[in-house]
Amino acid sequence: MASFNPISLERATKHANAQRLQDIEISHWDLWQNDVVYPYFERMRNEDPVHYAAASRYGPYWSITRFDDIKAVDRNHQVFSSASGISIVDTPPDFQTSSFIAMDQPEHDTQRKTVTPVVAPMNLAKLESVIRARAGSILDGLPRGETFNWVERVSIELTTQMLATLFDFPFDQRRKLTFWSDVGTGGRQSGLVDTAEEARAAMLECLETFTGLWREREHGEVGTDLISMLIHNPETKDMVNRPMEYLGNLLLLIVGGNDTTRNSISGGVYALNRFPEQYEKLRADHSLIPNMVAEIIRWQTPLSHMRRTALRDYELGGKTIRRGDKVVMWYVSGNRDERAFEDADRLIIDRPNARQHVSFGYGIHRCMGNRLAEMQLRVLWEEILARFHTVEVVGEPKRARSNFVRGYTELPVRVHLAH
Predict the structure, then answer these.
(1) What is the maximum span of the chain, computed from C-alpha positions, in angstroms?
(2) What DSSP string runs through 239-267?
(3) CATH number at residue 81
(4) Does 320 reside within a domain?
(5) Please, what sign has the CA dihedral across residues 318, 366, 384, 121?
(6) Residue 282's pLDDT band (boundaries 50, 70, 90)?
(7) DSSP states of 125-177 as a string?
(8) Residue 281 domain-assigned?
(9) Fewer CB near the last or first residue (10 Å), C or N of the chain?
(10) What's the domain count of the chain?
């Protein structure tokens, strides 16, 4: 099993404790790419849980870092609006997209209800056998006795196959979905494009491709894929004529159906290697898988934050948030809050309150695909345990350069067959 070097985290802890509290600013990519942001959050939770960063590359913003305060902001959509964007990064004024997650009531519910049937219980039941067959095929095709990248061979492949199914996207072109997802969330920081112009061109290619799929299906029979649902719902049947809204919703569904699940798949393997006694516990009792899935999603927190904008002055934690202020709910901090989760930095697969995490958000914007994500993880781990004694991490992972998606680009592993 790989050894995990804590030196960089130790240095970050010293730096976090030595800084003046008002100077702490945790949006820097390096903190996230090196996975050393936790001591900064710990200090803010303990000393300044509603923290104002007066100067950052994204302008001034409030950091909400405690579990209960995050829930209070997330459920108060009357005061904290999504309409100005959901990321700490403001979108360019000349390339504004919109989607239902970045809408307030009543538009939010109207559009969300259009695509919710794709993750209805009956449809999930049908998808489970598809997920199991694909997971089994992917795992059976993994190399034995050699190191490979788990992210590429398993995490991306399984989630992209399922995303292609949900969109009824051409299966042989499914890796385009991964590309658009990564560029959509990372832009130049994704490492896939060199300039903002190239990132914009990739997004326009996505729009053009899906516009073509819309035109192919708009006069056909009602399908069960996401595009057909938008076409045949009275509230969204003209969305293709509002291209930036269509693109925004496409990216929301692509990222929501891809990035979050794939990074929890990778994060789960990494975490079980970080805490090998939990891997032993899992091998001894496979019935822990469903609870472990929730705990992996808590521990990983695949989307680190969501942003809101205050519609009026509001007091929280003894601080006055002013109308128009940017407010960032750091889900990753809430999920490591010792007030909510004992020994929160550890993966504990039988944690009693694992399902109470805020990784899926809270309130009206709670992730609609949470059950599908959990099912993919559950089925995959059932299939992993049926085949392998250990998925062994043999080197440090490489992480995405992003303060929004807590993702992995590489996770070197070897698989060892079940005894």
Answers:
(1) 64
(2) GGGSHHHHHHHHHHHHHHHHHHHHHHHHH
(3) 1.10.630.10
(4) yes
(5) positive
(6) very high
(7) HHHHHHHHHHHHHHHHTSPSSS-EEHIIIIIIHHHHHHHHHHHT--GGGTHHH
(8) yes
(9) C
(10) 1
